[in-house]
Amino acid sequence: MLQSKSFVRKTKQGKVLKVVREHYLRDDINCGASICKVCEPAASAAARLSSNGSTVLLVIDTNVVLNQIDLLENPAIDNVIVLAIVLEEVKNKNLSVYNRLRALCSKTLRNFFVFSNEHHKETFVKAMVGESPNDRNDRAIRVATSWYQRHLGGSTQVLLITNDKENKRKAIDEGISAETVETFVKSLGQPNLLDLVVRPNSEDVGMEDVEDLRPSKRKVIYSEHKPLSEITFGLQRGIYHQGKLRVNRYNPFEAYVGSESIGDEIIIHGRSNMNRAFDGDVVVVELLPKEQWNEGNSLSIADDEDEEEEDVHLVPNSADDAPRNVDVIQNSGRNVDSVSCRPSGRVVGIIKRNWQSYCGSLEPMPMPAGNGGIAHALFVSKDRRIPKIRIQTRQLGNLLDKRIVVAVDTWDRLSRYPSGHYVVLIENDINSRPFSAQVLACLPPIPWSVSSEDLMNPIRQDLRDLRVFSVDPPGCRDIDDALHCISLPNGNFEVGVHIADVTNFVYPGTPLDDEASQRGTSVYLVERRIDMLPKPLTEDICSLRSDVERLAFSVIWEMTPEAEIMSTRYTKSVIKSCAAMSYVEAQARMDDSRLMDSVTTDLRNMNTLAKIMRHRRIERGALTLASAEVKFQIDTETHDPLDIGMYQIREANQMIEEFMLAANVSVAEKILKHFPLFSILRRHPSPTKEMLEPLLRTAAAVGLDLDVSSSKALADSLDRAVGDDPYFNKLIRILATRCMTQAVYFCSGDLTPPEFHHYGLASPLYTHFTSPIRRYADVIVHRLLAAALGIYKLPPIFQDRPQLTSISDNLNYRHRNAQMASRASVELHTLIYFRKRPTDTEARIVKIRTNGFIVFVPKYGIEGPVYLTPRGEKGGDWFVDEEHQKVKKMDGSISYSVLQVVRIHMEVVEPQPNRPKLQLTLI
């Protein structure tokens, strides 16, 4: 059946056009229910809903998806009908939630079915005269729910889930079963699920459906955010300024907004002036009058025990009368040179929220429990930049003293804290659970070996005669890369990078693939590894161990002695590694002039090529940065740390890194050529001027003139940054690293080619290909490369750009969480190590504050605050010279400057029960 849809559209020239489009309706669209008799036999192939008579089929409206996505992702919520009209509306309102919903609909282990209600002749509805788009969509949802009830003939219950009071009322009047989210979740008999429910606004549902939502007669705490029309007007006329809010990691009551409109950072002092903005939010700021600017940008180091209540002031009912110079840390007794006076402001609006899931722990609140055993608690994030979050939970006793993950729901101006809900009891949202039986069933039988079919397969080249070897960290069992280097008769070299062929065992759409996609990456902790894939794959079947035949995906170049690439080829292969060396072993072989065996010769040749490649890359502008990576020696029995120190980088490390980088660049070029819209790449955005400002101020204070106009200019400047202190240059590079943006995965169709650039590597293209055992991004890239070579067809998911965007977002999220978990593991083991080992050592000052400074301890890779005044005092008789990055006594008798060497005492203290911390004290 053919229908016509018409709508009006305004052109750029201001003309109004009526657009008429053909809209085809069908009566053979599958309902997705396995019990359905009408849709058979097609239903057997497409069914996703297990309507077995006792199961309820759920139809969810748009607001339920937008507000309750954490709940929907819980396995307890199943047999969900996602109407196409809902999917489209969610896509228009929140792309992130849309991608999460699409991921649910594509999972093989979840029953979420997308029904094309807009193209079914019995569920399509025309807009009525005077009906708003929202009302029309609600009516379409009710019509589709009613059709499902009739279509299935009462064989199973169909339930509309909505928190819209009017939509629910109309549904019941029309004979449709309808419930609110909370009422339905209560009926499941799983009280813990209620913690995932985002509390609706009281106007959305009847108060009988909501527990503990009646607000008390609280006074207004924060200023009302300006309406969009006023913000737009103010931005155009320079009254307001827009930028991203960055909260100081050592003082959560101080933030900065980089503003292009005034060419400087605007300082935001105190939570009241932050006005409910989170770190990373894109905000609109109004400058305070100059006489109210807080001089300098260096407030006191905020102690862990500082109370946020200091910062909260009642805001008058009129936003125009709101206080404009509120500061959590009072300025009495704090002196700063007038030369460093910088703009201060307050947030008047939020353009884009950066709310994420946060890891931390609960503080019980002295409040009476609500109905149904509800307890109120304050969540304290591990990230000090995040304010405390108020949650309601029915399992307070179970959650206390544990790491949990909480998501933010709302923050109204009557509340001192944002409100949120508990998501999961997994530190950093890391899935450390054992692999399920369905996942393990996807693995080949053990023991596994290369078969004759593998060797005879025309897509796979037999490279077992090559002298292939691997070089990895000591004790590495998940070896996913190996190399070879042979001399050619023409004087060139053939160099190969061989990567474990993980996709030979991980097929798209299987439970194993779904699990790897969700985990995203392996997580490396101090004493253990949380695998992305089961150990039989990571440590045996795929691991390129020595003296066993293994399947690989190879990138092979012909290179001149000057490391110029003459040709590149890609092939699936079979290899047999002759040696699995550690970095220390490989370095020792290269350094021992008595060794002249073939493997050592290959290592030296590769190292020579790598040095040339590295030099050429740096000449192009690649940055050689540094990080405070820590290495622990662990007791094999107690798992306690025996020693701690900075990780040492050798030439062997750099050699392997160089060829892995080259392989990743070559593969990026290949897949993008074949799939310009569907390639998963990795980019590193250039740092902004505001991000580099702390580095420039520090450099200027010690007499360095850093050129940050390009990565090449910055790299050259860092090379020239040398001093008498042998550690000086590394410290400057560490400070530069901290000014960088985060490298991220992305789908090539989402950005333009200039945005693909990787700033740190000075490369126009980059991806991850070389570690598929531990990164799902590499698994995707292996599939893209195989399709580019014509080996396999591209899986259907690669034709769905929003789904690829969702996968990229998840990879970035999982990568960040893995980094956080790794750092938390280092922090924990650092505490364990120093608990019984109070130590005096040298440290370098890296940041000046008004009541102390932040130091970095090179020997241990540790950073932390050192106080010059007793805790609780805000500066005393010290003042800050912002221009020269010094903190001085008022009488001039003592001063400390940035990058100065000081001696400190380190010991573990426990100011609060079960919250130990490493305390650094100036000697």
TrEMBL record:
Domain of life of the source: Eukaryota
Q: Does the keyword Transmembrane helix apply?
A: no
Where the record annotates domain RNB, the positions are 460-791
SMART domains from the UniProt entry? PINc (SM00670), RNB (SM00955)
**Where found in the cell?**
Nucleus
Q: Does the keyword rRNA processing apply?
A: yes
Principal localization reads: nucleus
Which BP terms does GO give this entry?
Answer: nuclear mRNA surveillance of mRNA 3'-end processing; rRNA catabolic process; rRNA processing
Q: Which SUPFAM superfamilies match?
A: Nucleic acid-binding proteins (SSF50249), PIN domain-like (SSF88723)
Domain PIN as annotated: residue spans = 56-169
Give the UniProt keywords, A-Z.
Exonuclease, Exosome, Hydrolase, Magnesium, Nuclease, Nucleus, RNA-binding, rRNA processing
**Range of residues in the leader sequence:** none
Pfam families linked? OB_Dis3, PIN_4, RNB, Rrp44_CSD1, Rrp44_S1
Molecular function (Gene Ontology), one example = RNA binding
**Cellular component GO terms held in the UniProt record:** cytoplasmic exosome (RNase complex); nuclear exosome (RNase complex)
Named cofactor requirement(s):
Mg(2+)
Regarding protein family, the annotation reads: Belongs to the RNR ribonuclease family.
Q: What is this protein called?
A: Exosome complex exonuclease RRP44 homolog A
Its source organism is Coptis chinensis
